[in-house]
Amino acid sequence: MEHLLSIGAFSRRCGMSISALRFYGECRLIIPRAVNESTGYRYYGEDQLEQARLVRHLRGAELPVESVRRFLSADDEGRRRALDAHGAELAARAGALQRSLDEARRLLRPSSAGEAERCCIVDARALAVAFG
Question: Helix axis angle, 7-14 relative to 49-60, nearest 10°?
C-alpha cells in the first residue's frame, strides 16, 4: 500500500502553500492521488514531490500555467527548448525594465553638470494680480 501525505505535509515537503496546491489541483498540474469524499482532504504520493517542486520553480520563473502544462507533457528536447525560449523572453524583459530604470535615473539628474534646474514659487494671488 502506497504511503500518502496529507496536503499539509506535502506542502511543507515541496515548498508550496496549501492554497497553491489547491490551485494547481484545479488547473490539473498537481492532482491529488486521493481525496476523502466525506472531508474533502487531499492526499499526495511521495513520488509527486519532484513534479510539485518543478512546478514551483517554473511558476517562480513566471512561466504561465498553460506553458507549465505543455512543459510537463513535453519530451526532454521540448522541455529544453521551452526553458531556452522562456529564458530569452525573461532576459529581454529584464533588459527593457533596466532601460526604464536607467531613463528614470537620468530624468532625476540635474539638467547640466553641477547646475540644478532653476524654479521659483509664486503666490497665486500675486500671479493673478500680475496677469489680471
Answer: 60
